[in-house]
Amino acid sequence: MQRITSATAADLFDIAATRRIEQAASAALPAHTLMRRAGLAVAKLAMAIAPHARTIWVACGPGNNGGDGFEAAAQLRHRGFFPVVTSIGDEGMLPPDAKASLQRARDAGVTFASTPPSDYELAIDALLGIGSTRPPEGAMADWLEKMHASGQPVLCVDVPSGLNADTGTLAQGVSPAQASTRTCITFLTLKPGLFTAQGRDAAGTVWFDDLGCGAFKDQPTARIAGAPEAQPRNHASHKGSYGDVAVIGGASGMAGAALLAGSAALHGGAGRVFVGLLDPSAAPVDTARPELMLRDARTLDLSSMTAVCGCGAGEAVGELLPAVFSSAAALVLDADALNAIAADGVLQAQLASRGKSGSPTVITPHPLEAARLLDRSVGEVQADRLAAARGLAARFGVVAVLKGSGTVVASPGEAPPIINLSGNARLATAGTGDVLAGMIGAALAAGRPAFEAAREAVWQHGHIADTWPADAAPLTAGTLARRAPV
Ligand SMILES: NC(=O)C1=CN([C@@H]2O[C@H](COP(=O)(O)OP(=O)(O)OC[C@H]3O[C@@H](n4cnc5c(N)ncnc54)[C@H](OP(=O)(O)O)[C@@H]3O)[C@@H](O)[C@H]2O)[C@@H](O)CC1
Ligand SMILES: Nc1ncnc2c1ncn2[C@@H]1O[C@H](COP(=O)(O)OP(=O)(O)O)[C@@H](O)[C@H]1O
Ligand SMILES: [K+]
After folding, report:
1. Which Pfam families match (predicted)?
2. Which of 168, 254, 262, 364 is deepest in the core (most CB within 10 A)?
3. Residues near ligand 2 with C-beta < 6 Å?
């Protein structure tokens, strides 16, 4: 059993792949082995979470996820605990493995009840796993709501019930959970939905148990990549070794966004950072950060630079984009640059042609910007974040970073997308996206390939928020930029 953290590197498999893997694993073992192992793992984790529990409520569903619950209850009873099982569905319709585990729970002397116990120290959610097909209703919905409302710890078996294991979306009517009360133990494969969209809150701390089956050779649906390796700097290097970044943005009243990106590029290790402001009346120097070289955006020669384009850029950036596409050695497109592209078919074609040529290019939309680029609603983007990021990467031939909880980084090639596990809601404050764009710019300027530059900067950006002391002042974008690691 392994705890999954932002430092973990692993493959993720969707439900279809998990089913294939489960069938192959099951066929190679004596009947009922996988469920016995799964139930034992649940019981061990339950005992670790609530070692002094007097009552453990085990809510079991009508499929094999419920079977894991019956098995866990049997194992807990054997170890002196008092599980109370409530179950949904017709006993005669249980799949064979689940039926056998139900019998084992009965033989172990587990208490069965028709309603949940009024007091309990831990709830085990074994209602639905990867077989969830529709929104829970009736008793199942009531029990999930009770787990949610009680504030007691919940241990989710395989997948939080009602969460789509592929996409991380919650079924209609299921209340969003609070991650601090939640633990999920998932079996055989790690599923992408546990790590993006609403999955992070629903699953909380995720543990993985391969049920003794080892790793699989199938092509993963996505990956978690873990902490990036440090990029050591040679003694005999100089500022030219780390490249130039040119931030293009900062229309009237929005210079701050461009300066934040510039600061992040600077602290992220770029050799030199220019900030090309679109506001002609902007001050000639940022006295707080005199290292930044402020210029008129229209005068910058980008042919040997990494351009970070769009932060606070307003509509004015649209007319500069054709030249940026054709001249920038490497490019990060954010915010208003993305909005301009979304509104203009010619710019879309030009970006796709740049992407096709292989010039390093990263786009960093938040869900609304992604929705505009894809001509969809935000809801549709969030309903399948992996597909949205893959779609953007394929359409424009660029690396697409779809931001938000469980940021997705997709490449236009064959590599599976990355879901980033660092970061938290401390980042939900204005300007943190500008900082990310600057950090990716610094990594590109230093010569990192576009996909690596994006995923490494996304991880570092989130890691700063994860290691921000709980008792410190709120993490502002300015502070985040100054913490950007080289
Ligand atoms: N077999 C093995 O080797 C191993 C299996 N393992 C475990 O099995 C789990 C997968 O089991 P599973 O395929 O039986 O699916 P599961 O998630 O229990 O749900 C299906 C049942 O729920 C029902 N149902 C669906 N939605 C519903 C709703 N809203 N409200 C009410 N009912 C609803 C659905 O009914 P139907 O849609 O057919 O009407 C069907 O009866 C997996 O996540 C892992 O925990 C592990 O032990 C590893 C080894
Ligand atoms: N709840 C969250 N969990 C993880 N990361 C988050 C969360 N909220 C925001 N972020 C991150 O913060 C950044 C916000 O970017 P963006 O929405 O473009 O903000 P802005 O436009 O104000 O700079 C993104 O990198 C996003 O992934
Ligand atoms: K479950």
Report:
1. Carb_kinase (PF01256), YjeF_N (PF03853)
2. 262
3. 335, 366, 403-405, 407, 423-425, 427-428, 430-434, 436, 461
Please list, in sequence order, all residues whose beta carbon lies within 8 angstroms of the beta carbon of residue 29, skipping any fewer than 6 positions away: none
What is the Å distance from ligand 3's center to 155 Cα?
Answer: 8
How big is the CA angle at 316 (ends 313 and 320), to the nearest 5 degrees?
Answer: 95
Amino acid at 113: A
Q: How far is the CA of 477 from the centre of ligand 2 (A)?
A: 10
ipTM of the predicted structure?
0.95
Token digits for 116? 């949940």
* Of 421, 417, 346, nearest in space to 384 by CA: 417
What are the percentages of helix, strand and coil residues in the chain, rounded to 5?
Answer: 40, 15, 40
pLDDT band at residue 7 using 50, 70 and 90 as cut-offs: very high
pLDDT (0 to 100) of residue 281: 84
Spans of all domains in the chain: 2-219, 239-483
CATH number 1.10.240.10 is the correct assignment for the domain at 239-483: no
Q: For residues 207 and 184, give the distance between their C-alpha atoms in angstroms, rounded to a whole number.
A: 6
What are 139-163's pLDDT values in tens digits?
999 999 999 999 999 999 999 999 9
Domain 2-219 has CATH 2.30.30.40: no
Residue 98 C-alpha to ligand 1 middle, in angstroms? 10
Q: Which two tokens stand for residue 61?
A: 């569903």
Query: Is there a shared CATH topology between the 2-219 domain and the 239-483 domain?
Result: no
